[in-house]
Amino acid sequence: MTPGQRRAPSTLAAPPLRLVKHGGIFTAVNPSDWLRHWRHPNHLMLAVPWAGFFGLVAAGYLLLNLLFALLYLIDPHGIAGVAGRTTTFSEAFFFSVQTLGSIGYGAFHPTSLYTHLAVTVESLLGLIVIALITGMAFSRFSRSSARILFSDGVTVHDYDGRLTLMFRVANERRKTILEARVQAYLAIDERTTEGHRMRRLHTMTLSRDRSPLFLLTWTLMHPIDAHSPLHGLTPQDLAARKADILISFSGIDETLERPIYAHHCYSFTDVLFGRGFVDMMQEEGECKSFDFANFNQTYTCPSAKPS
Predict the structure, then answer these.
(1) DSSP string spanning 24-80?
(2) Degrees to nearest 5, angle at CA 197 with 194 and 201
(3) Rounded Cα distance, 300 and 305, in Å
(4) String of b and e for 94-103 (b: at least 16 CB within 10 Å)?
(5) Burial letters 158-190, b for 16+ CB under 10 A, else e
(6) Opening angle at CA 243, ends 240 and 245, nearest 5
(7) Is residue 146 a contact partner of residue 170, using CB atoms and an 8 Å limit?
(8) How many angstroms separate the CA atoms of 54 and 128, rounded?
(9) Going by DSSP bridges, is the β-strand pair 298-300/148-150 parallel, antiparallel, or unpaired?
(10) Quick check: 274 and 156 in contact, CB under 8 A?
């Protein structure tokens, strides 16, 4: 190809893509690419719920035994101890179950060279399958998970003389989380000076984004000043530009001594202008307590106005 020539456009049609919004971010998904979920089986087995995990293990176990049962039927006289003159499908299936699990009751046993070779292969696969399932189950049990509760909405009202955005997080496990950190971002549609449309993330600085010990609840505050990405935006602007507020939580589980993570996304419809959170601290004489029933409760703040 000479310097003056252009590369010819590809004749292969690009697969159709569908945009899926997840956590304020749009991801391109090919609906016809159903194999993408199975390209990384280790990630799939760790990501699915426990019911899905046991369901996949049971389905794989059943299919493997069915496969070897069919292989054993190729030599109908290769298994001794069967009831009839030849091996039935049910006898071949349960012989496979005994072989794969190294059970060995003694009633069934191979007699031909072909069946001995099939038993050898299945025994080797049984060792590998048991090791893989045990490792994945241990990984799922040992994985630390955060039970972080986020408030249903985000409030915006005057606080200490300036407009402030607030949201709450709570530790549902009631066990101390060490070195807790919260980060907030504004995801919003923007256009460049040339007219290009982009989805951008802007950091929202919090008044206090770290806590050495996090046990109960935490109210996060973001001052809406001249340095805030929300400065000058009205509720109509947030709706028109499909704004989302992304929250990222990280910390260390005190019991397991492992990092934990959690995230949440607030849509522009979750931003409550002119509302404030009800105080959760209850005082009765010298006794103080937290009322978690007020975690999502708000009240009207007449002085709150968007910048």
Answers:
(1) TEEEEE-TT-GGGGGS-HHHHHHHS-HHHHHHHHHHHHHHHHHHHHHHHHTSTTSEE
(2) 115
(3) 12
(4) bbbbbbbeee
(5) ebeeebbbbbbbbbebeebbeebebbbbbbbee
(6) 165
(7) no
(8) 17
(9) unpaired
(10) yes
Q: Which residue has the tokens 């040339």?
A: 194
Two structure tokens written together for 123:
């025994």
Per-residue pLDDT tens for 10-27?
444 455 555 555 544 555
Instruction: Read off the pLDDT of residues 57-82 as tens digits, 9 standing for 90 and up.
Output: 999 999 999 999 999 999 999 899 88
Q: Answer yes or no: pTM beyond 0.85.
A: no
